[in-house]
Predict the 3D structure of the following.
Amino acid sequence: MFDPLKLDVQLCFSLYTSARTIIRKYKPFLDPLNITYTQYICLLVLWEKDMISVKELGERLMLDSGTLTPLIKKLEKQGYLKRVRSQSDERMISIELTELGIELKEKAKDIPESIVQSLNIEISDAIELKNRLDDFIRKNPE
Amino acid sequence: MFDPLKLDVQLCFSLYTSARTIIRKYKPFLDPLNITYTQYICLLVLWEKDMISVKELGERLMLDSGTLTPLIKKLEKQGYLKRVRSQSDERMISIELTELGIELKEKAKDIPESIVQSLNIEISDAIELKNRLDDFIRKNPE
DNA sequence: TCCTATTAGATTGTATACAATCTAATAGTA
DNA sequence: TACTATTAGATTGTATACAATCTAATAGGA
């Protein structure tokens, strides 16, 4: 008999478990750089576009200032970035990579490839899965 | 030019975001029961099989005692379960639903259906996505 | 039986997530 | 211009995750 109150049946649990599983895979590659997964994705955004506000970073990662403020301060303490009060609008903080932060990009460049190698998944399946997830995210905003 | 250090390219971020997105969808349905998503999935396991150890629950959810111990104590404080030291092996704790915990199953019975309704996704797509995720989890253990 | 290894769960410490609230700055408007 | 609303980011409080360590109990030999 089909019971929707079964853990095994619920999509959410599969998403939750998959996310934790893959984030765990990043750990051995991020530990040497002394950063966490969330810090890593912040840096990914900054490596793409430097000098953005906390708000813009938050929109990109779908995280709020409650999560980002302490995290950015930790990256600042490690010397990877600076927090600069904007001149034009003093409510805003501009996050700016330091030399060290820019250099870190080079050290992190092989991580995506290493992750793909460490995952037991075909590239085509990974792409298909990612497309389906992005479709899901797109259709379920907020 | 394809850059693997782009956030948008990485499967992990899609998983991470999808998981947070769908867990957020549970909140309006779980808030009235005064439980969180993680507490809910613990109860899902117990509603399926009562009187299990912390270890067995942990294996089912892939969570360790560091996460589960405080969480189970909160559910105990709310009166949904009892923690009973096993007679045969005093290292083990048996988690046992109370009347209140059993009654909660009835109150939670419509949640899966409500979630499906609230998600903008076709059932067939949800099933396909879930199958792919479960395949991914199965192939990437630990 | 005695000793060592293992195991179950608890505890500690760090790092998110996220709701709710707060503060200071800016925008919008009468 | 004076007033109100909005906005950016910080702060507070709660609840995970998870590594590392600790403790007590059991298992498995010599």
